[in-house]
Amino acid sequence: MFQFLVDWWNALPFGVQWTIATTSQILAFMIVLLLSLAFLLLMDRKVWAAVQLRKGPNTVGAFGLLQSFADFLKFVLKEIVVPAGADRPLFLLAPLLTFVFAFITWAVIPVAPGWVISDINVGILYVFAISSLGVYGIIIGGWASNSKYPFLGSLGQRPRWCPTRSLSALCWSRCC
Question: Which residues fall within 8 angstroms of residue 143, CB to CB, at 6 or more apart?
Fold first, then answer.
């Protein structure tokens, strides 16, 4: 069985092998990143529950370990409510845009020696450029609602993103 898979893999053209290998590496990295995020979120909820002297998430799974996954399932199965006058395609595209920008930022961050999705020389500039684009998903969401108050609220997010990006750039320039 194993020899059959090796023969099948070797029979594939190089471009197909590269595409399958790169896609599987990206998927593995995304799964590890999402699982890490789920358990960091659980830890954050547990810490804030302890600060507020309450139990925190403890009903889904042993010790509440599956709470983040239950919340994700609830989010996915929730009904999508689009305002009546909203631009529907933009309104649905805006959160996806922010999510994609957040994930493609991780493409140049090495997680182990020699294991990075895209090894480019200007990786730190790439991180700053792509991570600052995430605010446009918020602004597009406010614009797509076709109401002035959500749009003004989304425009208010831009000043909140700029100082964090400039401070992190300053810190990275002093460390490197």
Answer: 87, 90, 151, 154
User: How many angstroms separate the Cα of 24 from the Cα of each of 2, 38, 123, 158, 163?
Assistant: 19, 21, 22, 35, 36
Q: What share of the chain is helix, strand, coil (3-state, %, to 5)?
A: 75, 0, 25
Q: CA-CA distances (angstroms) from residue 28 to 12, 38, 45, 69, 89?
A: 22, 15, 26, 18, 30
pLDDT along the chain (176 residues), means of 10: 85 91 89 88 86 78 80 83 85 88 87 82 85 84 86 76 60 56
- State the pTM of this model: 0.71
